[in-house]
Each structure stands twice: as structure tokens, then as C-alpha cells.
Amino acid sequence: MIRESYLNAALLAGLLAVPLCALLLDEPFIITLATRAAILALAAVGLNIALGWGGLVSFGHAAFFGIGGYSMGILAFHAQNFMPLDLGFMVFDGTKSMPIIWLVAVVLSAFVALLIGLLSLRTSGVYFIMITLAFAQMFYYFAISWSRYGGEDGISIYIRNDFPGLDTLVPIQFFSICFAALLLALWLNARLVASPFGLALNAARQVPVRVQTVGLDPARLKLVAFVISGAITGLAGALFADLNRFVSPSMFSWHLSGELIVLIILGGVGRLMGPVVGAMLFVTLEHVLGGFTTHWHIALGAILLGVVLFARGGVIGLVCGPKGQS
Amino acid sequence: MTQTILETRGISKSFGSLKASDSVSIDLRAGEIHAVIGPNGAGKSTLIHQICGGLRPDAGQVLLQGQDVTALSTAARARKGLGRTFQISALAMEDSVLENVMLGALGASGRPWRFLAPVMGDRALRDRAEAALERVGLQDNRQTRTAALSHGQRRQLEVAVALTLDPRAFVMDEPMAGLGAEGSKTLTGFLDGLRDQAPILLVEHDMDAVFALADRISVLVYGRIIATGSVDDIRTNPEVRDAYLGESA
Amino acid sequence: MTLLRVENLTARYGASQALFGVDFTLAEGEVLALMGRNGMGKTTTVKAICRMIPSQGRLEFSGQNLHVLPSFRAARLGLGLVPEGRRCFASLSVAENLIAAARPGHWTLERVTRFLPRLGERLGQRAASLSGGEQQMLAIGRALMTNPRLLILDEATEGLAPLIRAEIWGTIAALKRDSGMSILVIDKTLSELAQVADSAAIIARGKTVWSGAMEDLSADVTEQYVGV
Amino acid sequence: MSTILVIEQVLNGLQSGVMLFLMAAGLTLIFGVMGLINLAHGSLYMVGAFAAAAVAGATGSFLLALLAALVAAAAAGVLVETLVIRRLYAADHLDQVLATFALILIFSEGTRLIFGSFPLYLDIPSWLSGPVTLPGGIQYPLYRLALIGAGLAVAMALWLLIERTRIGIQIRAGENDREMIAALGVDISRLYTLIFALGAALAGLAGALVGAIQSVQVGMGEPVLILAFVTIVIGGIGSIKGAFIGAILVGLTQTLGSVFLPVLFRLFLDPATAMSLGASLANMAVYILMSLVLIFRPTGLMGARA
Amino acid sequence: DIKVGMITTLSGGGAGLGLDVRDGFLLALAQAGRDDIELVIEDDQQKPDIAVQLADKMIQSERVDVMTGIIWSNLAMAVIPSAVNQGVVYLSPNAGPSQLAGRGCHPNYFNVAWQNDNLHEAAGAYANTAGYSNSFILAPNYPAGQDALTGYKRMYEGDLAGEVYTQLGQTDYAAEIAQIRASGADSVFFFLPGGMGISFLKQYADSGVDIPVVGPAFSFDQGILQAVGEAALGVVNTAQWSKDIDIPVNTAFVESFQAEFGRLPSLYASQGFDTANLLISALEKADPSDNEAFRAALREADFDSTRGDFRFGPNQHPIQTIYAREVIQEGDVFTNRIIGVALEDHADAYAAECQMP
Ligand SMILES: Nc1ncnc2c1ncn2[C@@H]1O[C@H](COP(=O)(O)OP(=O)(O)OP(=O)(O)O)[C@@H](O)[C@H]1O
Ligand SMILES: Nc1ncnc2c1ncn2[C@@H]1O[C@H](COP(=O)(O)OP(=O)(O)OP(=O)(O)O)[C@@H](O)[C@H]1O
Ligand SMILES: [Mg+2]
Ligand SMILES: [Mg+2]
């Protein structure tokens, strides 16, 4: 068994080394893949805060991913087409600046997470899974018929947005941005888990009544976790949109919510780096298997099945042993 | 006259046609252990739930230190000084013993909304938690996973968590449940010393413990208090013998 | 004739070993008390006998090796379990709880409800809304419905009012007296056990430390291993 | 909008609800009893439809095709249960999610490997095709009437099985405490395999019945799966009665929503806006229904437990 | 060597279309005997984000000269604008969203199939010729669906008995069919691609409603006709190609496709085949490294199209004849037969908006 902290360091080093090697070998697409993995990992890190530590199995995190994506899409669309965005109370030119887009994405998804969380947290268990799905589906269908922003076709942004001091079109530079965002989220996650809030949240997942009897409100703890979680996934959505220079309703789809959950389980639920391992593995498999046969889904399915049957606690569980033992 | 810490005034609760609490008035005074006994299904746990906030009474009031808390949530009552242990242990089993008491201390501090500073680095919380552990004698097990504790130790931990809240009153539902003779004896001794800290409202079927501990006993049958009095009053009350004690006492 | 033979039984929960060698035998028609402090392995022994957890050693019921059988087959040989914590099927009615377990034999729904009249009055009520004592009765009735050759009672009086405890002890005594049923009983209170049990086995730290006839049990031994 | 049209639409809603029930019943059974979130349930629906199409193509008999659907789906169910699911009862819910997600991939791509990428042909048998005239002059397809009838019959039989038979009681007991029912002498693994096969067979039957009026193609199970989940959650998980009520509610909401919402909006909006707004809202209608139900009844209409 | 990147849908529910395009394309390459064309094929799983990444891969890592293959409009909108702006020539074998035909046209973008509205416009025109004057029209509620209804209405001169948007991916059309029955329409126009169309047609046939139906070829194409079966018999649909277009290149194509792959070619296969032949014709005149010359060669469209005359309009979209076909049965096989011309030499409605830089 390897100490989890060593593995974590090795993983991050790996995720950083792959694009650097790709840079040397002049394989820009590998960098794009690494960026994709980093962004999916970021989204899943967000979900993991709700799912892993708060015990909130959200099957609707695509809602936040999509809101992040559409924040980027809409702001950049207006900037790109020189059509001011009329918000009713103010007129806004749109923007191509990443920091502003991120801010909007984070604030909007946090706000929506607050609303969804308020309503959803009345339920628990499978009911919670399904009500979060319901909200995401509402966004999905709304986006599909929102013809102003392309409906099902989505919005294409021809040039990637700007980040002060960087050329975001250079793959490695955009990767650095995403990697930095991932590191920041992981750092936040680690601090959160060890913080007073994390202690209370952890207990709220296991024994809500106990938390109540010490004078805290478990529902509110979970709500805050849900909001933080949604905000991080929203940020990932904005980055994902920028990676593809494109947003569409598929960012809201339940497949995406499911995929995020799968990433976490694959890596290890409630493990700091679980989402990162999951994302790296998933993106690699998708890329490598796809090269062999058009029926690669069978192979992917078999591998996932193998992980469930023979690696309880995900890949990290396999390598480091069960949670709480190291 | 001693001060009344906790009091119910005519609380009633029905489940359908069943009257689980029928105008129950009971009080807990400073420094005493007040035991509530009664047959199974008499409504003891239901009474506890209403006192602690898990159930809302259909009628009547719950007063804590003279203040009406009937409308407050469980969490709010806890903040006002109601310390509770459960019939079945409710502890974070995956966490260490220390983390469980830290949670109590955190609740008592009322400041859970801190996201970045490590909780274990908070000296004030830490001291409070350690003090509670020491009080129940679990200080050597602070790093043990709660799941690995024995039954009796879990009971002690529950009390420790309640202690961190510095409660005005304890409410305990069958703390002896599942403890062997020896365990019961130890816990009895421990609870005996606890009454100086805060009075205890104790629901218990273990008559040895009740008779050893209680200053007063109330007997609940079909949702009603049929008698309240000293140990000897109750022991000899024929109604109580019929409804509850049988020949055993 | 020996009904249950347990020899050098060992068992573990994941990484931690709970039983280190439990031995005792129980004859047909006998009532055996299994005693010991908290956490010493009484329930674990019962679970092993009922094949609810994996175990090693010798485990024979009327000459059959239980270790080769899954839980339900062991039960069909004639093990009737009243588990620790009652474990009634909460969402089922009293009658359904009984029917779910029924196997042909002496004990039928009528006999059981006549024997435990409190249940008879509540056949349609959901188990979840029964009081603790009634649930305990139900668990006993349910075990009887399987028409066991050996009834296993694990803390059958826990959490019950003194009056009902007395009733349950009366029930156990009646079973022994009227139907000559073999019974393995675990309980905290020595005095009540002493009245019904023929023999006893004491477990400490997962090992049998004493076994023999009930009347041979000395105060020293119980003081040392049971704490009374 | 004439009464006839309204009645016809109600029938349509009923019919899609009843078919949804066949899916939802298996799902709710499997979830309720085994605590298993079976994402692969939609794949069993697909297996049923493909088996039916293949057999109908080879033999020309619709009844044989239905039989084949039942057998193939049940067999697939048994296979999946014994090879994969059985090892996961003790595992975390989330592990089951991952495993059944993996099974979707395998089933879908496996079906494509065997049957190719093009939709298959499965048609209504001639003795059930065409419309009949109902009292009041409503022209309604006979096949859809037959679906309503078949669905109601299955629902009734299932309800009797679960509520009235000893096996049903044991199934529900296993739902409460699996280990305990085994310790009482009930072969719970066999019972589980049976339930899984039963759930699978119902899904397969639904796939075949619906396949005759829809497109038999890879991935056809996924939209139905999501709807079936919505259904059992509305009804309350584990409850057959709940699944039935939920299914009818969802069927009616979907059908009537898509027809009447645009009409409703036309009362106060211009036609183009009304149409697109109505259509989008109709898409969301079942989800809105589900969230409303859950907000007011957090464990569904018939659910007792969380 | 020339490197061509093909991103198309090869897995999941929509794989049939992608497979046909790919096979048609491969057949043309094989027949031309060009082994200097390196074809990189990738599966987009019908997911826009995957398609974008594959495009990035082809452009960044594989450094392809020409790209092609995308089936779906939403994927096309995700990939094409950015690809052509990076200097890659894109030949569309299927999707033709209106944005790319009008304001978003680009010298590097060529459409070898149709602009999305074309077949619907043809259906509208056919409705006029057939004397329909009260159509009930329906399509899914998404951009291509909205374009379809717009396209039909652009040419159709009669009244509308009803206009309905269905749900994307909907499988049950009982509600819509009941509305059609009640509407008093004399004809039905629908655009329901893939499984949606199969479901609609089967249910429509069973409902006993016998109002004539027209639609674009997508629901009557070779790949899915067998699944629709008799329900489709006699339905009129519009397409720029049909297997019975009686010109040698088409006859040869149908024969060789069937010989090679063991199935009849579909509309998509013909489009893949034509796309490859267009590419080959241009490669014979210019090298992609000379972007200007290569594009000029493409614009000439100097190849034998399976659909007969083919030329590009100013926005590099086809100007072509669109036929009305009827579904017939030949032995066991359901297929189409041309019954007339719906639109002669038709160009799309957006060409005027296109200002080529
Ligand atoms: N949620 C409920 N719905 C219906 N009946 C209930 C509910 N909760 C409790 N009851 C009933 O109310 C009565 C009182 O129950 P309570 O749990 O308070 O008894 P108790 O005195 O604590 O018994 P015990 O000593 O066995 O724990 C019982 O008859 C019980 O069945
Ligand atoms: N599910 C479990 N996982 C891990 N350890 C367990 C589990 N159940 C019991 N143990 C441990 O096994 C040992 C024996 O427990 P067991 O329940 O058999 O004791 P017991 O004699 O029945 O005690 P009690 O009188 O409290 O019921 C104890 O140390 C206990 O902590
Ligand atoms: Mg109680
Ligand atoms: Mg025990």
C-alpha cells in the first residue's frame, strides 16, 4: 500500500509532465487531452465536495457545468458579434476576458446551486439523486429551445477568450490556466475537509441527528457544501467551453452528470484526488481505446466493470487501501 | 426551593388514534436525577423527542430555564443548553473519538462557518474537547475510530459530546441499553457524579440503575404520568407494580 | 443426543478477529445459556452458527457440518433465530412477518398467536409501529413459525419493561416445559437465566473460558467473567 | 378542441403510462428489494425489442416474438445478476451505479456488434393493426387498446404477486432485512435472481410491445430509463402501486402537456411564441411534475422510507 | 501526400449515417486508386465536445489539409467555423446549417450535400404541384426542425392546418396523429430524422389516418426504410439523389457499393462518394498547399456526380436538382423511385447574405 499523499503528488506531477513532454515532442493534441482531463477533474472535484464529503449524490451537476459554459458562450458571443447584451436593467457589451467570465460563471452557478439546493435538500437518498436530475433536465430542455443562443446547435466562439498576459490559443498556456484552477480547487478542497466546516459537514453526512444535537443545522451545512460544489463545477464549465470554443445543450445533459459521477467513483469517492485519477484514466481510455475499434465502448465497459468488481473504493482504494487507513 | 431547569407543561401528542403523550407535565430541578419509567410503548421516547425538538407536540409547552422553547428547532434547543444522548448511539462512526467531541465543541462555539483554517489547530475547541474526553475517561482513545469502540465506550463518548456543550440539562434515553451488568455499574457510578454538572432526565428500564440513581421517579403509562415520587414511593406503589414492575422489585 | 456441537470456532470481521476458539455442546431438549461481558463474542458466535458470517472450526448441527451450508440451508435444518435488536420486517404487518418465515410443522399462525396473544390482537399492524416489547414477541413468534429444533434467543429481554421481561422468561420456560424445545439463550441477567438454563458456557475475549451445568456455576466464575 | 380529441389524448396518455409502468415496475422492484440502482434496465428493454424483432423477422409470428423478448430479457437479467450484480449487494450504491453504467456500454455496443448500426423492423401483427371505432365515434388504434389492456393485466398480476402471495411477502421482507430473511430459511439469492429476471422480463416485454410502434434501435432504452426513474420516484420507490400511479401521471402529463400547453399559451401569446414556448415547457413538464411532487412529498406519493 | 481528416459518427444510435458516409468515401478513394491520400477517421460519438477535440487533434497533431465527415448540424457548427478559420478546407458530406451558407460562409468551406433547407423547400414545392392546399406540418423543437418548417413554408403556397413542434427524441406520436386527424388537413409534412421518423410512420400507418404524407428523404433513406417497412409504402419524399437516377456513374456506384458492402447505398453513401470524388477532382488540378488554387479547383466541381449535374453557387453550396421520390417495394427490399422533379437547379435562400472575404 502506498501512502495516499505520495500518490497524490505523483498524480499531479504526472498530469503536469504529460503535456510538458507533449510540448517537447510537438504533440499539441496530447496537451489538449491533458487540458480536457484537468477540466473534467476540476468539475468532478467540485462534485466530490457535495458527493464525497456531503453525501449528496447529485445527478444534476451538469446544470452548473452548463451554466458555466453558457456564461462563457453568451458573454463571448455578444463581444464577438458586437451585439450588446440587454439585461433589462443594464446594457452590457459582452466580454472576452476570462477572469470576468469566470466570475460570472462562479456567481451564477453558486446562485443556481443555492436555489436547487434549497428545494432538493428537502429530500434525500435516491429522491435527491432524481430531483437534482430533474432540475438539470429543465435547463437542458430550456437550452435546446433557446433559439436566441443557437438552441441545440449551441454557440461557436471562434477565438478563445483572453487572459491577461497569456496567449490562450497556445495549448500549453491554456493548459497552465486550467491546471492552476485545478490546483486551487484541490487546495481549497483539502483545506475545507480539515476545517471546522469540513468536520461538521463530515458528521452531517454520517449522523445528521448528532449534528443537530450539538446545535448545528445539517441541512444548512449541506446547502453550503452544495453551493461551493456547484460554483467549482460552474468554473469548470466555463473552462470547458473555452477549451472547445463552443457551448451547446449537451453540457447540460444527464450523460454529463453521470460521467462526472463515474469519474469520481472510478478514482475513489471522498478521496481528494479521486476525481483527478478518474478523469485522467477516463480521458486516456477514451482516447486509446477509440483508436483500436469502433466498438471500443465494450472494452471501456469491461474495464469499468473490472474496477468495480476488483478495486473497491476506486483506483485510489486499490492502490492506497480503504479510506481512513492511511 | 431548588430551581427548575427543564419543564414540560401539559404536552400531548397523538399518532392517529393513539395518544402517545397525554397532557404530560414533568419537571427537572437543579442537581437531581429524575427518572422516567414505564411499560414499552408508554410514550417515553416520544416524550424525549418532544423535549429535544425532534417532534412537535400537538399541545402544551416545553420550557428550558423558564423560557418557552416549544417552537425552536433541535439545534436551537441544543444551543440553549439541552444535552442529549440517544437510545441507539448516534456518533460519526468513521471518525475518530476526538473528532466526535470536537464536533460538540464546534457546536458549542457556534462558529462552524470557517472554511480554511484547520479545525484541529483551534486551541480553544481542542481544549474543550480534551477536557470532555478526560471527564469521561476516554482521553487515551482519542485517536481510535469510533466504530472500534465497545458499546460502553460509545455511551461514554455520547456523554462526552454532550458535555462539550456545557449543558444546563441532560436528557438520556436508555443509556444502559445493551450494557452488561458490569458496564451498567460503571455507567451508574459515572452518571451519579454527573448530576453536579447538570441535572439528568433519565429514561431507563434497568431498575437497578434507576433505583440507585434517581432522586425522583415518574411513571408513564399509556401516555400519562400515573405517579411521581421518591424511589421508595414508587417501589411500593401498587399501581406501578401492576403496570410496570411486576414482581421483580 | 447432541444437537449442536461447536468446537474451536474462530471468526473475524474484516481484519479484526472476534472469535478465537469457542467450544460447547448442546443436547436435544437442553437450555444452554451463553454468557460473557459486552463485546466478548456471544452475538458473533450466534451469527457464525446461523452462517451469517464466515467462520472456521467445527460446527455441527444434528450431525451435519454447517460450514458447508449457506445461511438459509442451515436455518432449514432447524435453527430458529431471535436476533439481537429484534430485526422485525418493519414495513410488513405482524401477520406477514410471521408468514414470511413459516415452514410446515407444529407451530402455525394460529398456534403462535394463541401462544403470544399480544400478537394475535395486532395481526394487521405494521411491525414498525409496535412497541419494543411487542416487537420482541414478534421476533420470537417469527422464529417459532420456522418450527425450529433449536431456538436461539440473543438478548431477547433487552430494553423491555420488567413486567414484560418476566412474561418473556415465562414464555421461554413454557417452551421448555411444554414442547421440550432446545434453546440457546443469551442474556445479561444471571438470576433469570439461572431459572431456565440447564447448562452454561461463558465466553471471554472470543474463547470459551468455562462450560458446564448451571448449578456448577460458582460465584467466583461469574464474578470474573460476567461481572456479577 | 373537441371532446373526442381530448378523450383520445387521454387514452394516448394512459397507453404510454401503462407501458412506462412495465419498465418502472421492474425498476422499482429491483430498487426496492435489492437496493440496487439499475441503470442497465433500459438495456434490457432494448434486448427485449431486438429479440422480438429478430424472431418476428425469422418466424413472422408476433406472439413468438413476444415470448422471445420475455425469454431473452429474463435470460440477460439472470446472466447480469449472477455474474455482476450479485457481487455488489454488499457494495456501496455508487459502485452499483458505475457497474450498471458499464453494463449499458457493453449492452449497447454489443447489440450494435450483433445487429449492426441500422434500426430493425418489428411491426404490429395484422390481427391487431388498424383503428377501431369506440363508442362516441372515436377512432383509436386497436394495438394501443391492446397495450392498455395488457399493461393493466400485468399491473394487476404483479400487484397480486407482491401483496398477496407468500413469495411477495418474502420479497418485501428481503427488502427490509436481507440477512435476516436468509437466517429464517429463505433462499434469498434465488429470490433475488428471480426478481431480477422478472424485472428484466417486464422491461423486455415493454421493449417488444413498444418496439412494434417505434423504432427498434441501439440506445432506445435510455430515454425510457430516465422516464422510468422519474416515474418510480414520483410514485415512491419500492411501491408497485406508486409505480403505477407515477406511470399514469407521467404518461398523461407528457401527452396532454405537449398537446394542450401550446394551445393554452396561444390564448395570451402570439402563435409562434406560444408554439415554441409550449413545446419547450412540455419537454420539461414531467421534470417539473417530479420536482413539485418531491418538494411537497420528499419520498414520493406512496413512499414511506427515504 | 495529402492528409484528409474525417470526423463522423461511428458509434451510438446515429452510427448508421456516419458509416454510410465513410463507406461511400472509401469506395470512391479505392476506385480512384489514389494511395497518396491518407485518410484519418475518427468517431465523434455524436457529441459536439468530442468532435471539437477530434478536430483540434486533426489540425494540431495530424496537420490534415482537408476535413470532412460530420453528419449533424450541431456538430458542424461546433467544428467547422473554427476549422476553416485555421486554414483547413472543409467539405461537408451532409450537414448544411444556414449560418454557414449565409453570413458565416467561408472560402474554405464547401458543402457537397445540400443546404439544410433544400429538401424541405423541395417538399413544399412538391406539395404545390400535387395540389395540396392545407398542410399539417411538424418537426422537432430544435434548430434543424425550425429550419425545416421554415423551408417548407418558403415554397409551399397553401394554408396550414396546423404546425407542431415535437420533442427531440420523441418516440410516441399518438398525440400528434390525433391532432392531424382532427385538423382537416389534406396533407402532412414532417421532418423527423432517425428513429423519430420510423416511430411516426409506423404509428401513422396504424392509426388509419390516410392523409398523404411528404417529407425530406431522411426518414425514407435506404438505411432505415427496412425498419419502417410497409408503413412507408407510397410516401413521397424529396432528395437530390436516388438509386434509380439513370446515369452511368450512378449505376456503377450503386452496383459497386452493393458489391463491396453487401447493402444498397443510401443518400448518405452517395454524398460521401461525391465528396471524395470532388476532392479527387480538385487534387488533380492543384495541391492543397496552394490554398488559393486548390479552392479554385474545388469551386469548379469538375467531377461526375452520382446525382447528375452538380455545381456550386457563390456561397459554395450546391445548385442542384431535387427530385420527388416514392417509396416502393422491390422484392423484399423497400426502396425509392423517382416520380418527378420537385425543384430544378435549385440554389439555397441564403446565398445572397454570403459575402466571401
Ligand atoms: N411515528 C409514529 N407513528 C405511529 N405510532 C408511533 C410513532 N412513534 C411512536 N408510535 C407509537 O407510540 C407509542 C409510544 O412509543 P414510544 O417509542 O414513545 O414508547 P417508549 O415508551 O419509548 O417504549 P420503549 O420502552 O419500548 O422504548 C407506541 O405505541 C408506538 O408504537
Ligand atoms: N460488524 C462488526 N464489525 C467489526 N467488529 C465487530 C462487528 N460486530 C462486532 N464486532 C466486534 O466483535 C467483538 C464481539 O462482538 P459481539 O457482538 O459478538 O459481542 P457480544 O458478546 O454479543 O456483546 P454484547 O453483549 O455487547 O452484545 C466485539 O469486540 C465487537 O466490537
Ligand atoms: Mg423508547
Ligand atoms: Mg451481542
From TrEMBL, chain A:
Locations listed in the record: Cell membrane
Entry GO CC: plasma membrane
Entry membrane topology: Multi-pass membrane protein
Superkingdom, natural source: Bacteria
InterPro entries from the UniProt entry: ABC_transp_permease, LivM-like
Claim: Transmembrane is one of the keywords in the record: yes
GO MF annotation list: branched-chain amino acid transmembrane transporter activity
KW Transmembrane (keyword) present: yes
Keywords of the record: Cell membrane, Membrane, Transmembrane, Transmembrane helix
Segments traversing the membrane: 6-25, 37-56, 62-79, 100-119, 125-144, 165-188, 223-241, 261-284, 296-320
Protein name: Amino acid/amide ABC transporter membrane protein 2, HAAT family
Gene: livM
UniProtKB/TrEMBL annotation, chain B:
Sequence ranges assigned to domain ABC transporter in this UniProt record: 6-247
Xref: CDD domains: ABC_Mj1267_LivG_branched
Pfam families: ABC_tran, BCA_ABC_TP_C
Annotated InterPro entries: AAA+_ATPase (IPR003593), ABC_AA/LPS_Transport (IPR051120), ABC_transporter-like_ATP-bd (IPR003439), BCA_ABC_TP_C (IPR032823), P-loop_NTPase (IPR027417)
A GO molecular-function annotation: ATP binding
SMART domains per the UniProt record, alphabetical: AAA
Keyword list, A-Z: ATP-binding, Nucleotide-binding, Transport
GO cellular component, one term: plasma membrane
SUPFAM superfamilies with a match to the protein in the record: P-loop containing nucleoside triphosphate hydrolases
PANTHER family documented for this protein: ABC TRANSPORTER ATP-BINDING PROTEIN, CONSERVED COMPONENT OF ABC TRANSPORTER FOR NATURAL AMINO ACIDS-RELATED
Name of the protein described by the UniProt record: Amino acid/amide ABC transporter ATP-binding protein 1, HAAT family
The species this protein was found in: Roseibaca calidilacus
UniProtKB/TrEMBL annotation, chain C:
Molecular function GO labels: ATP binding; ATP hydrolysis activity; branched-chain amino acid transmembrane transporter activity
Gene Ontology process terms (BP): L-amino acid transport
Stored SUPFAM superfamilies: P-loop containing nucleoside triphosphate hydrolases
InterPro entries the UniProt entry points to: AAA+_ATPase, ABC_transporter-like_ATP-bd, ABC_transporter-like_CS, BCAA_Transport_ATP-bd_LivF, P-loop_NTPase
UniProt key word Nucleus: no
Protein name: Amino acid/amide ABC transporter ATP-binding protein 2, HAAT family
Record family assignment: Belongs to the ABC transporter superfamily.
ABC transporter domain mapped to chain residues: 4-228
Keywords annotated in UniProt: Amino-acid transport, ATP-binding, Nucleotide-binding, Transport
Keyword ATP-binding: yes
Automatic annotation (TrEMBL), chain D:
Membrane topology annotation: Multi-pass membrane protein
A Pfam short name: BPD_transp_2
Location(s) in or outside the cell: Cell membrane
Family the UniProt entry places it in: Belongs to the binding-protein-dependent transport system permease family. LivHM subfamily.
Gene that encodes the chain: livH
Record organism: Roseibaca calidilacus
Keyword Membrane: yes
Example GO biological process: amino acid transport
Superkingdom assignment: Bacteria
One GO MF term: transmembrane transporter activity
Entry protein name: Amino acid/amide ABC transporter membrane protein 1, HAAT family
Key words, A-Z: Amino-acid transport, Cell membrane, Membrane, Transmembrane, Transmembrane helix, Transport
GO CC annotations, alphabetized: plasma membrane
Transmembrane segments: 18-37, 44-60, 66-85, 97-122, 142-162, 191-213, 219-237, 244-265, 277-296
Xref: InterPro entries: ABC_transp_permease, BCAA_transport_permease
